[in-house]
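Study both lines:
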Amino acid sequence: MKRFEYKHIRLDYKGRGITQEINILDIDGERIRAWGDNTEVPTLPEMFSKLGADGWEMVSHVVNQDNQANGVTFHYYNFKREIA
C-alpha cells in the first residue's frame, strides 16, 4: 500500500499578486520569514519549482477572499509525495 506525506501552505500575495511575490507565508503552520540562504520569502514560481524538484505534487488550491474584515486574500495549497 502506498503511503504519503503532506505539506500545507497558506500565503497572501504582496499587493495584487501580479509579480507573485509573497507577503505572508505559512508552511505546515509555521510562519516562514526566509527561504534557504535568502533573507526573503520566495516568489510563487521559485517555491513551486523547489517543491516539484523535491517530489511534491499539488493536490488542491483554494482561495479565501476576506475583503470585508481585513482585505486579505489567502491561498491554501496542499501537496503530497509518496513515502519511499
